[in-house]
Amino acid sequence: MLKFDTIRPYYDSEVNEALCTSLNHPMMKAMMQFTFPNVDDEVWKEQLKRTHSIRDFQINFVYKSIKKVLETTSEGLTTSGFEKLEPNTSYLFISNHRDIILDTSLLNVSLYDHGLVMTASAIGDNLVKKEFVLKLSKLNRNFLVQRGLSPRELLQSSKLMSEYMYHLLSKENRSVWIAQREGRTKDGNDATHPGVLKMLAMASDEKNCIDYFKKIKIVPVSISYEYDPTDALKMPQLLAQAKDEVYIKDKNEDFITLLSGIIGQKKRIHIHVGDVLDNELDEIAFGNDNTNKQIQAVAQLIDDSILQSYKLWPTNYIAYDILNNSSTFSNLYTEKEKQLFERRLELRINSDNDTLKEGFLAMYANPVVNKLKYINAIS
Questions:
Q1: What dotted CATH number matches 2-8+73-311?
Q2: Cα dist. 84→20, 109, 174, 273 in Å?
Q3: Secondary structure (3-state) at 192
Q4: Stretch(es) of the chain classified as CATH 3.40.1130
Q5: Strand 119-124 and strand 142-145: pairing?
Q6: Considering the entire predicted model, what is its pTM?
Q7: Which one, of 255, 259, 236, lies nearest residue 360 by Cα?
Q8: Which of 193, 191, 185, 192 is nearest to 364 (CA)?
Q9: 27-54 per-position pLDDT tens digit
Q10: In this structure, what is the dihedral angle of CA atoms 37, 38, 41, 45, given to the nearest 10 degrees?
Q11: DSSP H or E run through 78
């Protein structure tokens, strides 16, 4: 097990020490005062001192923190599809990725509420450079995805991560969450990168990757926010791409985005879990023994599930109509909702730059464009 030490979360035997050495950290204090506003500091400190497992920390503290985030920054979380999953069963959840912390945290809240196995979740090591944030992530069962590596190091790192995920799924009966691509989606176009699937298959001892994918029980997950709390923060990168420039992040950009995602307004949120990929994988394997083509087909399968089950909000339809100067979906939103969204656009993009405004609108409109492709294909 030493081979996973560079990327794994804490063992339960390490939890209490990590918590005890973090009791007086300003960020721990801020988190606990937010979660338990009417409780004296000594009360939560004493409870943390008596916490000796990740599960206890997640249920007694993190779960309540996320519930408080929902209460103060959203109009509620709805879910669908969870009733299809089996209790005491591990799954590999592959989801679209909108928010650094909340995507996986909200999934875990939903899994816990439905009596299902919570996940170990992938997080980029670039996001946890601050010591306390790294501790908190390891206390919350995150494992590290190593970034900025040379091609040779990347290959070794990918193999290690693949083996670790398989170890979690098969030996520890622990579900795993991973995003469908590296980094969060900035333009609203959710697409599975084949490289993610190739990485997963590195741990396979099966004759072909399809048998392995069936074994690890892949479940596509679609998460949608009515308002993306980090929408404006994603614009500089999109602007750089539009100009064909290399985008360089500010020193604290990831941390600011992380906090903004938690405290920013989201309105309504919906998470849908799709069916476990099974029979569809057999169809891909039948008569096709080209691994690259199989992986492309599996990626498309995941995309189909995520895009078709993506919950569209009034903000998505409004952005589509503004962008296309149309009233195609005007029956799906009110004039007040449109005015509020236009006000948000004005406040968040405080600029006359048309590229920025179009990028902001496209971020919300693209999920409509993507869903229309399926509706048109059916009709």
A1: 3.40.1130
A2: 39, 17, 18, 9
A3: coil
A4: 2-8+73-311
A5: parallel
A6: 0.94
A7: 236
A8: 185
A9: 999 999 999 999 999 999 999 999 999 9
A10: -80
A11: strand 74-80
